[in-house]
Amino acid sequence: MPKYYGCPCEGCGKPLTLRDDIVVCPDCGAPYHRDCYEKLGRCIHSPAHAADYEWKFPYQESELCTCPSCGERTLRSEEHCRCCGAKLTSSGNEYCSDACRRRGEEMWRRERIRRKLANANPISRIIKETEEYNRAHGTDYTYGEYVAYILPGVGEK
């Protein structure tokens, strides 16, 4: 969920980082730490969901920079990285050196590959299909029930 890194959790206001377990409201897209969402029990914007409220990323890309130490996105105006605490450059450059730029780009490249592989994983596909089927049909099948009873009949009609 790279688009949520660096923005505040809607529950506690603390910045979301690469290390956080992030969940997103299925109705409006507002991001939360999983613990915050579970404590609240619902999205804080749920009264506005009926009016088609949609969460918007609070920062422009030009307001963000990449930490040369950990690769986390953070506000250019901050002196230290929100994730690792490393001192950020004051020159306004995103990276302090070419070596840092290469390291940051490599970290993001690996993260994109990891996410792509996670989405290509057949188990991930089955989990998504089960959740979509349950939503569409108002059922509550487990993943195992979906694979055993529903999946074989999906292609038959």
Model description:
The chain is built from five helices and four strands. The chain has helices spanning 34-40, 46-49, 98-120, 122-137, 143-154, and strands spanning 22-24, 31-33, 64-66, 73-75. The strands form two sheets. Strands 1-2 form a two-stranded antiparallel sheet. Strands 3-4 form a two-stranded antiparallel ribbon. It is globular, with a radius of gyration of 20 Å.
The gross shape turns out to be globular
Spatial extent as radius of gyration: 20 Å
- Overall average pLDDT: 81
Percent of residues in beta strands: 5-15%
**Distance separating the two termini:** 36 Å
The tally of helices reads 5
Order of helices and strands: EEHHEEHHH
Compute the number of strand runs.
4
Helix content: 25-40%
Strand order of the largest sheet: 1-2
User: How would you classify the helix and strand content by structural class?
Assistant: mainly alpha
Largest sheet: 2 strands, antiparallel
The parts where pLDDT drops under 50 for at least 5 residues are none
Write the layout of secondary structure elements.
Blueprint: E1 22-24, E2 31-33, H1 34-40, H2 46-49, E3 64-66, E4 73-75, H3 98-120, H4 122-137, H5 143-154
